Structure prediction request, 1106 residues.
Amino acid sequence: MNNFSYTQATTAKQATGIRKDQPAAAYIAGGTTLLDLMKANLEEHPQLVDINLLPFKGIEQTKDGLRIGAMERMSDVGEHPLVVQQFPAVSESLLLAASPQLRNMASIGGNLLQRTRCGYFRDAAFSCNKRVPGSGCPALTGDNHNLAILGTSDSCIATAYPGDLSVALAAFDAVLTLENAKGKQRRVPVTEFYRLPGTTPQRETVLEPDELIVAVTIPVTPHARRSTYLKVRERSSYAYALASAAVGLDVQGGIIRAARVALGGVGTKPWRSPEAEKVLTGAPATDATFRAAAAAALRDAQPREHNRYKVELAQNTLVQALRQVAA
Amino acid sequence: MDIEPSFFETNPQAGAVGQPLDRVDGRAKVTGQAKYSAEYNQLPGLTHAVLKTSDVAKGRITGFDTSAALKQPGVLAILTHQNLPKLAKTPNDADGKKAIGAPMGFLPLTTDQIHYAGQPVAVVVADTLERAQHAAALLKVQYAAEKPLASYEDPKAELFDPEAVQDGKTKGHTVRGNPKAAFAAAPVQLTHKYDHAINHHNPMEPGATTAHWEAADRLTIYESTQGVSRTQKSVSTMLGLSAEQVRVVTKYLGGGFGCKGSAWPHTILTVQAARAVGRPVKLSLTRPQMFTSMGHREDQTQTLRLGATKDGKLTALIHEKTSTTSPWDNYAEPNSKIINLLYECPNFEASYQLARANVMTSTFMRAPGEAPGSFALECSMDDLAYELGIDPLEIRLRNYAEKDPSTGQAWSSKSLKQCYARGAELFGWSKRNPKAGATRDGRLLVGWGMATASYPVHNSQGTARARLYADGHAVVQAGATDLGTGTYTVMTQVAADALGLPVDKVRFELGDTKLPTAPNSGGSVAAGTVSSSVYMAVQDVWQKLIKAAVLDKKSPLYRAKPADVEVKQGRLQLKADPKKGEEFGALMKRAEIGDVEGNGQGRYGSGYEDAQAAANADPSKKDEAAHHSMHSFGAHFCEVKVDPELGTVRVTRWVSVHGAGRILNAKTARSQIIGGSIFGIGCALMESTFRDPNYSRYTNASLADYHIPVNADIPDMTVEFVEEHDPYINAMGVKGIGEISMVGVAAAVANAVFHATGKRVRSLPITPNKILETKAASA
Prediction:
């Protein structure tokens, strides 16, 4: 770990101002991702800006939906009655993630910015286009058993966001509120927050250096209320998803009125599937419909040597999640 | 020596032995008082070392840029191959390796050559850990990299037939009977390949060394090792010092599983760093470094050909193993041994093939050989059962080995039939639906599987010392190590019973080369050898006190023949007239004997029969002991639930029953079997280190990405022991249970998966991708 200075910010302006002057500085909230990356010398920051005192807390009902402060902790949000009632998939995605200790520490804003578990990114001895642009991607011909099959490029096949929460947020049209050094706020849907790797896998989100995530707002809808998050992994707890699905259905009289589908563990970003939603909307809530939706969601999959199984696994995961919410 | 060997035979439940005593070191551990090897922080002027390891797997170091690192405050030294203090011996040649007892025929920092990724290239020493870490990051190493070879699976790998594997301990080729002809003539022939992922031991406590040169020729090492004596021998030999000049201390160990069974390079490098800076140095391996510093279970493919009659009797077993080894050593774990003896089979052949690759040398990992060997054999036995429509348990009984097929020797004891019967009863095996893929619980498929376990009682010797005080307390010592499994506790129990004292009057000390020499805690030998040493040391105490009594005019035993005196619960009495005698305390106080020291040796093959033979001067009986094959046996029964669409496998029920001689503590033994079974479930379902085929470097060297089971993966487990009295193995009749607990576990799980799904996954671990990609066998 490199030497760094540490500043505790008491206002958002102070925090974003530091990042404006020093883009290499990093915000630290729970630190559950950042410290790991710094200890492994994968990220070097001359300055850390502690944002734990910033007032971006609270979980409250607003006209746009449920607004969750970015400084709330994963465990508090996952267990909050309004989240559990209105967005079962969001609650489940939080409580199935990481470990209780990590969930108690990690902030919502930090969770959205966690970085890939790709083994080539996580070991500086390997080249990696995400870490050192242009250095190459050994994962293309190496260990890609838990890397992406959707949204990949010749530069990068990492599941840039390896976690769970953003998958559920992407499914239910959550919107992020970002604030910059001028104190100006803008709203960005989660689905537009993450970038595809393309030829610039080092740029993972649309967040500007002087911007800070201050809140997440999720619209309240019938399909979000009837939702679930299904996560498949190699052990029962404390493991990243091989595939996951956040789904919500509004079924009336056996017909799907509205559907939301997002997949985790298979895309280079949290993978909202309008293709699957199109198949589902207006169709009967049957296994045949679910299968067709799953096929549509994975139609463009580009698997590699060790992750071919993910095409079938992701489809089966999606079908099972749809069955659960339709039941 | 005239001893009373039958004490424990006639009083199996007499006192503390066998009771579920809580760990005597439990309080010290949970309160943080127990000091592990990286916790000797009060040493004067303690400094901190960090390993810098190679980014490339093959090539040469062309230079170092130390300027930035050396400029950092607190940095004391950077050791590289250019300035490492010279050693008297290194393992780089065969003689040196043998003399040192090194696990690997190569010591880093003795050359500019790079042979494997993660090879140490420098040791950075600073006054604080953080400064050492930072300087190590600033140290730049230049390499001339070459393309490495990653495994035997690489098309460029050159396979060869070694004369021997496992450091010469196992022959490269073994034939018994006429296996090829027998297989060709067999009415039932099965040929299957089994793959096994690379596994890493991953004890909770990483490898750690604290080296303190107390004088130019006197060194103390606080070492995370399974054997202080072996480390002492290795380090003193490399340094050219006598063993007495090197003291090794290991008071507590946070697990080892085999990776701490030898002195690996980081130990001597820390010692050399301490010499270079003239201050004590502490080095603790990081978790990623644990994947390239202390060995691993090698990547391997086994081919097993099984020939049988139509009624399920084995006629031939032909086993071939291909695996990866390092550029220097012919290491392969000996899978064939268990295949040679688990079942009655007149024809057997085993051969090993190796390929050299750019990896460090693999090493023994819990049940080395037996664990992967039993996976192949026990899956194929399951196949045979289905092939012939015979129950999997019945097929094993039909091939039950009444004596050791590999040697023709009688077993010293074998309770496998009882294990099968009790395990089947506890599990409800008789209710099993014989058809695979036919039992459901909602959308989940339910399967039952079983497998046999066996592990040898290895040849081992050790010593112990007991000191009994007149006030009725005792200190008992042996230079053994407690891996965390309960050595402190069980030896306290053994000593207490032998001395006739309550356990809280006995203190057992271990983990120091200043104490009587004990074997490595490895190969399941510690419990048997150390307990027998302790028992014999106490017998020596009694002999001395009996002598004192018969010479003491005031003793009721005055002028008795020593041979006519026995000791029961601390009371010296006449065998013929037990009323005549006295308590040891009365004798010692009256005769002003402050304390008595006894020394004892625990020996392999020196059980009750051996002692009787000695007592009766009957050498033929003594020879008999040596002519027995000594093994533990057991059986595992497993239920799994498989999601056929998601490929997830969960173990939902587990029963293990073992016959392993005397069980010293019902609680610690049960815990050890549970731990070993979980270790096996990890191997079966999730443990796998991935070595990149192009760079020969691991891609998941962390506990987030190398999965071991969590609580949610493990159901309540039922563990029982069959009462077993083995008169041959050692004075205490203890076989040891460290390894047998995981033998057969992977097969039991795989067999249950087959029963659930009709899919035979012959590749470990059985991860969801393999369930999805494997086709069900046609019914």
